[in-house]
Amino acid sequence: GNFTGEADDTLIIQAAPLADRLGSDRLTLLDARALPRFLGEVEPIDPVAGHIPGAHCTPFTENLDQSGRFLQPEQLRARFSQLLDGHPSETLVAYCGSGVTACHNLFALCLAGYPLASLYPGSWSEWITDPARPVARKEHL
Question: CA 120 to CA 99: how far, in whole Å?
């Protein structure tokens, strides 16, 4: 068949509005990178290691079973409901290193039955370009 898609800019958040929401109940921030990068122990790509303050380490690989297929919707829902901790799904923002693997988490959220959540496409690589933006390490596992 043929697919015609349209971009929805309401699902994108830029750095300044994201920074304004840091530390508020209006934000549940999911970092799709592996734990060592999140903790700031290693950073193979960017010149600064760590994560955006308040983020939860949510490696995209944990959306998959041992055969590399997505977990069942109920398993994904259990995973993400823990991270939401009672906050509405509208507070979710996903990011990673460059905005690509964050989309894996966004897709997994949809498989789990959640509505489309927001993406910070600049992700870590953009966040660290402004030295005034805060950087965290070894917290919010």
Answer: 7
pTM for the whole thing? 0.93
Burial of 16 (0-12, 13-18, 19+ CB in 10 A): exposed
Q: What is the CATH number for 15?
A: 3.40.250.10
CA–CA separation, 114 and 97 (whole Å): 23
**Of 57, 96, 103, 110, which residue is the catalytic one?**
96
The verdict on residue 60 lying in a domain is yes
Best CA proximity match to 38, nearest among 52, 21, 51: 51
Domain range holding 59?
9-41+48-127
Contacts of 107 (CB under 8 A, 6+ apart): none
Active site residue 96: yes
Tens digit of pLDDT for each residue in 57-69? 999 999 999 999 9
